[in-house]
Amino acid sequence: MVTTGLAAYFIFQQQTRFIPVLMMGLYVSFLVFMTSNHWLWELGEAFPVLPVANLVNAQVPLDQPIYIADFYDRPSLDFYCDRRVVAQPSTALLPVWQQTTPVYILSLDPAPYQGTASQFTPLGVAADWHLVVNQ
């Protein structure tokens, strides 16, 4: 706000110093914005992504597909996992869980998967998300 006012003053005085003043103000405002917590809005949207991504990276091989029992994708989870985490509703994941092995699923409630797999293996919990696999 200060640099914009100063730049407006320089424009009113017909001085070309308003250009570096505007550039400096833009640089300082982006610097303050990036050092604040407000630019990480997507990370805290529904659940904390970093603990879940750390769990996935520690337990799931890179060549295996992973699903999350949710209704929408989380691009930040894809980014921090270095792979695509496919979002599907739990009802759509049950047939995949029964037919294909191994299937890695992140779910808030692992109960639907416990009775349907030949071998249900819980791999960990992070931010209330359970990572399970049928092996």
Short description:
By secondary structure, the chain is α/β, with parallel strands linked by helices. It contains six helices and five strands, in the order αααβαβαβαββ. α1 (2-12) packs antiparallel against α2 (18-35) and α3 runs parallel beside α4 (75-81).
Architecture blueprint of SSEs:
Blueprint: H1 2-12, H2 18-35, H3 49-59, E1 66-69, H4 75-81, E2 85-88, H5 90-99, E3 104-107, H6 111-114, E4 120-126, E5 129-134
Helix pairs in contact: 1-2, 3-4
Textual characterization of the structure:
The protein is α/β, with parallel strands linked by helices and 135 residues long. It folds into two domains: 2-40; 49-134. The chain is 45% helix and 19% strand. It contains six helices and five strands; from the N terminus they run αααβαβαβαββ. A five-stranded mixed sheet has the order 2-1-3-5-4. Helix 1 packs antiparallel against helix 2 (18-35) and helix 3 packs parallel to helix 4 (75-81). It is rod-shaped and about 80 Å long. The termini are far apart. The mean pLDDT is 88.
